[in-house]
Write a structure and sequence with these properties.
globular, 8-stranded parallel β-sheet, alpha/beta
Length: about 280
Amino acid sequence: MSLIKREQIAGMNIHYMRYSLETFLNAQVEAGIHSIEFWTGVPHYYLDPTVYSDCKVLKKKLVERNLELVCFTPENCMYQYQFAASKPEIFEKSFEYFSNGIKATAELGCEIMQCNSGWGYLDEDREEAWKRSREMLGRLAETAKREGVKLALESLRPEESNLVITVKDAKRMIDEINHPNLKVLVDTTAMGVAGETLQDWFDVFGEKIIHTHFVDGNPYGHLVWGDGHHNLGEFLSTLKQNEYTGYLGQEITDSRYFLNPAEHDKRNIKAFSPYFSN
């Protein structure tokens, strides 16, 4: 059953964080993956509010392997930079951090950078944190416009945020900012935890969905397909019915995959194989 092109599967490097960048890239080639969503965590890439790694070096490594960069994803969960930071100094440093991410995205010839709402303190008024997130994302959308980049906003799980965690929250944020360079990313784990479906997101956003984090789950976990409870065939059918032609980022973050990520990537691609159209 032809539901997806092989090129739409975008390998990610989070579960290779204990390996070199070269090992990750070579493993993608060996697994038959052609597209990359690049996570900027150290040791694979350095990004901070003042500097970022030489994009020419990364681009050369990708070109040598005929790999296409389709989404740039600055680390924003484990590091101190986030989209709704409460302290003014950290808020501004976060803005510069993500602005540098946008600039690197453009230098790499990539069109999409991932983002989320960040989070507020649980002992503060949620609306105050919401205002900070809205301000940050609005400012960054303007930076993205100047650089020719689109931001793709994803929802998070309740353990990660008290801001955008549902499709309803995402619609509110998108509507309030109302910027042409702020689009939507569907994360199937956050979606599943919220009790939502892919069709729920397409019903609300349609063509504004420009990227996905498309992984299995229980619904928790960012798992290799076959290790969770989601129905891959049904999910892919929903994408096709809604004429989605974007990429499926394989955001595999569970630590069970860290020791031997290459073998798990091969197993993941094998799960997709019956649905490839080429």
